[in-house]
Amino acid sequence: MELINIFLKSAFIENLALSYFLGMCSFLAVSKSVKTASGLGLAVIFVLGITIPINWLIDHYLLSENGLFGMDLTFLRFILFIAVIASMVQLVEMVVEKVSPALYSALGIFLPLITVNCAILGGSLFMISKELNFSESLVFGLGGGFGWFLAIVAIAAIREKIRYSNVPAPLRGLGIAFIITGFMGMAFMALMGIDPAALVGK
Amino acid sequence: MADSKTNAKLDLKPVFFGKKEKKLLLDPLNDNNPITVQVLGICSALAVTTLTTKALTMAVAVTLVVGFSNLITSLLRKLIPSEVRMIAQLIIIATLVTVVSLTLQAVNYPMYKELSVFIGLIITNCIVMGRLEAFAMANDPWRSFLDGIGNGLGYGVILLIIAALRELLGKGAIFGFKLFGPGPDFLVDTQAISMLHWYTPNNLMVLFPSAMFVLAVIIWLHRTWNSKLVDVS
Amino acid sequence: MQKYRYTVLFVLILSATSALILAGMYTGLKDIHEKNAQLFKKRVILKAISPLLDKPVSSLSDDDVEKIFQEKIQQVVLDMEGNPVDAARVAAAGYKKGDALSVDMAKEFKKPEAERLLPLYVYKKRDKKYYITGVMGRGLWDLIWGYIALEEDKNTIAGVAFEHAGETPGLGAEIKDNPSFGQQFVGKKIHDAQGKYHSITVRKGGAKDPDFEVDAISGATLTSNGVTEMLQRSMKYYDPYFQKVK
């Protein structure tokens, strides 16, 4: 029950893209068509779902005071987290290439981009500040990734349509994308008051 | 091609701060602004712009990180093996960001608390990574440093404009000094400048989405004024 | 093979150097960090009694803050039955210094209710005692906490200071950012005329009862409800102690 609660919360209410505005660089750069956007979104679900639990393990068994070294090594958090993310992205890239060349050609170009997607590192840092346990952090990663996927597919769909509209020239492209994102963020703010525990309870 | 030729020429006759260097420093402020033109580093630009003091701290932090990571990467550029380029760059950036975070924690603890995760997120600020890849890996240390500082400043200027607008309209204050609207920490005697009471601070400006709108308006104005940047696609 | 060895060596040296630099910096700055964190906490506590201080908390120097804590504030740690706990037992709970300041309210909040330790700060001014209690609860996104100062009668609120970990700027965060929210609490009462525990309610749509209610922040219903819940529950923890010292 608690886990479903966390999934719903991280996917909709605390949406990484539209409530925290994380991962905006790729959110705006890769949202010109639904197809590429969903490719990137899937890759983000994948990487978030892997890196957050791994970073949880690292934080608890290597860096914390009662970990392997018995010292408070939290100042190495940034370096290790980003190293894990970079190597996981690389690993995922290699595995996907071997296992499913079709998926690789669909995701291929976006995978390296994910390393510098702040939603990934942000997810790990939020996992620390929320003090989740292992299974919660796994669900938090998957839920957060799913929410980000939804958001980027939604904005890509809107941007595909808006291409036929008469937008003032200086606002075309980037400017209007910002305004759309702002409105989507406002819409997501309406979800803020929902208590998923109450919904699940019903 | 032409670029590398002029570079070589300049290397023969070292110019410490010539036209080219000036361009490196000033270009990111307008034609090649990291936020409004290259669309990099948006995430933090939105989260820290509720207050001008926060935005200023962030701007300084990012400028230092971009400048010094460019400098260090450029110094090491001939040593870094290409297969681990990305990891090496990330280690350099993450180290610098941790240094900045530890320093801020010692110098201004309340600000460190305010910025929370966003100091750490400088690591994934695409400006830093982008400059390392696009510039520092191929240029000499001094120019890379200037390029980094220039991009940091270009980022900082936009950040401060957004923050000033949001704080002024959303809280009726700037750098924490109350200018408009009622409030117990009103700067001057309320009665004396009651004319400023016509404006009631608009809470929407403090909320996240407003940063998007402010940024869109800035892009709109910037592109109206500098029409070569208009998106034709 | 040669190349491969170089690559590994390069990464190792680079990471070792940066780890060394950071470790040096971290150990060098550790004392300052700890002192800053303590000062930060002390300032928040003083905010709760800011109407009683000569200067606003923001214009007090670090030395002033330390001086007030040394000369005018007595730190007490209580257990849930309202008995003062000695430093050795506090230290056994994981707080080496053994004083109220070292008690981590977030950590206590996670323990079962009966085992919690409560920090209490007694501020003395001209023979009058003021009791600063610590409260902790949940807001919309994350933890919220605060310090509530009670007057000599242990009933009337003298001042409050709220903090939060991640409420929305402009909405829930106003509990900390908007001084007029905190000012509403001054003069409100914890017990009714019969001495029964009542606490304060943050009411959406405007306070109705002048003694026990304050206005909520518009647009931040859940944070406001969180404040109500936090006050209802946490202020009651101190009741057994206040009954005893009466």
Structural features, described:
The complex is a heterotrimer of chains A (202), B (233) and C (246). Chain A has 202 residues and is an all-alpha fold. Helix content of chain A is 72%, strand content 0%. In chain A, 51% of the residues are buried. The model of chain A has no long low-confidence stretch (mean pLDDT 84). Chain B is built from 10 helices and 2 strands. In chain C, strand 2 and strand 3 form a beta hairpin. Chain C has 8 helices and 7 strands. In chain C, helix 1 packs across helix 2. At the A-B interface, helix 2, helix 4, helix 7 and helix 9 of A face helix 3, helix 5 and helix 10 of B.
Please tell me the total number of domains of chain B: 1
The Rg value of chain C, from CA coordinates, equals 22 Å
Low-confidence stretches of chain B: 1-13, 183-195
End-to-end C-alpha gap of chain B = 27 Å
- In terms of DSSP E residues, the strand content of chain B is under 5%
Rg over alpha carbons of chain B: 20 Å
Average pLDDT score of chain B: 79
Largest sheet of chain B: 2 strands, antiparallel
How are the strands of the largest sheet of chain C arranged? 1-2-3-4-5
Query: Helicity range of the residues of chain C?
Result: 40-55%
| Major pleated sheet of chain C | 5 strands, antiparallel
What are the salient characteristics of this protein?
heterotrimer; A: 202 residues; mainly alpha; 10 helices; 72% helix; B: 233 residues; two-stranded antiparallel ribbon; globular; disordered N terminus
SSE inventory with pairings:
The complex is a heterotrimer of chains A (202), B (233) and C (246).
Chain A: H1 2-13, H2 24-29, H3 34-63, H4 77-99, H5 101-107, H6 111-114, H7 118-129, H8 134-162, H9 174-189, H10 196-201
Chain B: H1 2-12, H2 19-26, H3 42-47, H4 52-76, H5 85-107, H6 109-115, H7 117-120, H8 126-134, H9 141-171, E1 173-174, E2 177-178, H10 208-225
Antiparallel strand pairs in B: 1-2
Chain C: H1 2-48, H2 62-71, E1 73-78, H3 87-92, H4 105-110, E2 118-125, E3 128-138, E4 143-150, E5 157-164, H5 174-177, H6 179-183, E6 201-203, E7 213-215, H7 221-237, H8 239-245
Parallel strand pairs in C: 6-7
Antiparallel strand pairs in C: 1-2, 2-3, 3-4, 4-5
Helix pairs in contact in C: 1-2
